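Annex B. Sample input.
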Amino acid sequence: MSKTYIIDALRLHLKARNITYKELAHAIGLSEPSIKRLFTGGDCGLDRLEQICQYLHLEFSDLFKTTPRKRKLITRLNFAQEQEFAKDQKLLMVAVCALNHWPVADIHKHLQFTRSQVQELLKRLDDMGFLEMQASDRYRLLVASSFGWISGGPIMQMVQSVSDDFFNDGFEGNGELLRIMNMRVSRKAQEQLKARLEQIALEYEDQARADAHLPLEERPPLSVCIAVRTWVPKFMRDLYRLELRAKPGRKSEISSPKQT
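Annex B, continued. Sample output.
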């Protein structure tokens, strides 16, 4: 198969998802001119091709099939869809499994659902554009790496309601960490630090995709919570002479758990 055919197939998949060269470049750590040269010159090594396919949630074999369906990778559900997830914990559970790249066989094996229930839940996720069923035992995730829950929406409210259970731990296990620091830095520094934290969240997501080929038993569940906000504990706030006021319109910067 010629490189030209592969590049043309990749271009079709980008178009089907309304993904620009700029968005792809940002996702895989290249400049936009580099991406343009890749698609015009056809100089795409195997490692780079695999990286692009991972971002698009494609198998190599998908590049040799017919024209892809025009379904854009989603970065957010709408409010009604999140409400549906919040009301149906089985649907939410299967969605989280899909986000964590569980094979259908593992969903059958490790969840207390019948096969018909799993198929029905996957079909509902397909109808929502969350994934695309390819066969009874295979699906393609249609969620972008930048996917997140609505800030203050139904799922984040659920997460915050169980935050006591999350934080009621010593965080002393392998790979676990809890640090809370109170400091004063410039507004510019705050934005720079926030950008770095967002990059760390993406690195966790990238690693989850890279490890998706491993058996489920070799991928223990990990919940990542990144939270940054203007805040002083009440016992400290009561000691200030000046009253602390949050700026109007300020919102907490909270990212939802990426893996559960």
